[in-house]
Amino acid sequence: MAHSTLTYNSHGSRVAKAIGGALVGVVIFFISFIVLFWNEGRAVQTEKSLAEGSKAVVSVKADKVEAGNENKLVHLTGLATTEETLTDADFKVSAPNAIKLVRTVEMYQWEEHKKEEEHKNSNGSSYTVTTYTYEKTWSPRHIDSEAFSEDWHENPKSMKYESKTQTAGKVTLGAFTLTPEQVEKLDTSAALAVEKKPAELKALKAVSSEGGLYLGKNPGSPEVGDMRVSFKVVSPMQASIVAQQKGSSFVPYQTSAGDALLLVREGTMDAAQMFDAAQADNVTMTWVLRFLGWFMMFAGLGLVFRPVAVIGDRFAFLGTLAGAGLALSAFLIASTLSLFTIAVSWLFFRPVMGILLLAVAGGLGFLYVKRVKKKKAEKAGLVPDAVPA
Prior knowledge:
By secondary structure, the chain is of the alpha+beta class.
């Protein structure tokens, strides 16, 4: 179930490709500065907004809408529920009092995997071995087999049924009505077993399987094109919310710090717990975006330095040495500039921490410059032998 193709790449074409990648790298490199700077401002704004909200919030009861709380930031807990019955029209599956009815459809299909390996030649050229492998797998999306390298692994042209989610039109929390945006945050679901009579299964050309439906001959021996369908339901649950009271519903609460607050959590949580959880989420997001910004800078520099490494491939030892050295340089430069960017942003948002971080970035920069000077001295033969201690 595999085949390979061989592609020759001249040294000139590799250099040209590397230069094109370098231009992309320059764009990624500069975008990384924007991501890092913006993220620090976002983090501080969210932190201040949550702190402001925690001081302004008023805890209220869910069983009655108090006119005196209109436009205030309120916190309440209660049972999020609905009186609606959601029905899947295709399979006639119903769920009474369901906040959401989730249908998951998978089709058994061929899937192509592509692996490329580049092998360098001594003259700077290379050849790329591209290996294509194929396997059958259950997938919730349609896989277009017409794009495969080989044309004898054929999937159906489309999926007759697709996954979808139905949501109740009116979900209440005590005397209040939740908006679709607020209901969307309630997603803990449980499997919904499908029970069908033989006549119903025959009409659907399906069989029962693992609590769901199997559209095919034999669930134990699937064929390409077979489908399996399962259902989950989001049932009434205890929920907590922090938002601005607007009539008998809620809208985001605009803080003077900049963020509009709308906190929805499953389960029973007091106001302090909800704000603590939101602050923790903010810290996590801040570090995720910091890493993303650093990685963008590192990857961008790697692309910028790539032409140097490719040109060096004309000389095998020089190319290997250049590749390793450039990767280390990209790492050090990205780390230094990322810290520097964060520090500069903190001069705007967190002045004291910004000064400390600038000192750390300066130290890394000093070490990098020192390393570069040492390498130049070694090449020039100016570094004396080490003196034994």
